[in-house]
Amino acid sequence: MVKTVLSLTINGTNRDDVIPDNMLLVDYLRENVGLTGTKIGCDGGECGACTVLINDRPRHSCLTLAVTCQDAKVETVDGLSKDNRLSALQRGFDEKLGSQCGFCTPGMIMASEALLRDNPDPDEAAIRDALAGNICRCTGYVKIIEAVQFAADITREELAS
Q1: How many CA atoms lie within 13 A of 115 on its CB side?
Q2: Which of 51, 56, 139, 141 could pair covalently with 107 via S-S, beta carbons 3.0-4.6 A apart?
């Protein structure tokens, strides 16, 4: 089995790990790094539960070989809270009841995080478009959209003050 030294930054922390070349990013994050917030849903890139940000872009980690993240910046839902405070999106999903069983929530939050970084004032259509690669089996998405809108409002208020 061929192995590679993977050097990358995960949630602001630099790492160097020897990993098999065929290891998926989702497995690397969960097994090697211990970040279990990223979920394995369909294992085929269809549900989005495993969405992470790679160099600020949302990607399904179940379809991404970890070695392709050499020198990349990877962000997971585990790294969004700061100083034991939930991020605006995490608060939104909590306060607006954007999660039911919670399984899709990490991927939804990370896809929404990418959206809000690019567009801090998205309309409903933009939110739906950004979440098109993520499936929730419990809801009709209304509460999820409300959670993202709530987070956008919080973020704009914090920036204005």
Answers
A1: 26
A2: 51
Measure the CA dihedral 91/161/127/108, to 10°: -30
Residue at 102: amino acid letter: G
* Amino acid letter, 25: L
CB 55 within 8 A of CB 36: no
Task: Answer for the pair 15, 34: CB distance below 8 angstroms, yes or no.
Answer: no
Which amino acid, one-letter code, is at 18?
V
Domains of the chain, each with CATH number or no CATH: 3-79 (3.10.20.30), 88-160 (1.10.150.120)
**For 3-43, how does the pLDDT look when each residue is reduced to its tens digit (9 = 90+)?**
999 999 999 999 999 999 999 999 999 999 999 999 999 98
pLDDT of 88 over the 90 cut: yes
Tokens of 156: 């704009």
Helix (H, G, I), strand (E, B) or coil at 18: strand
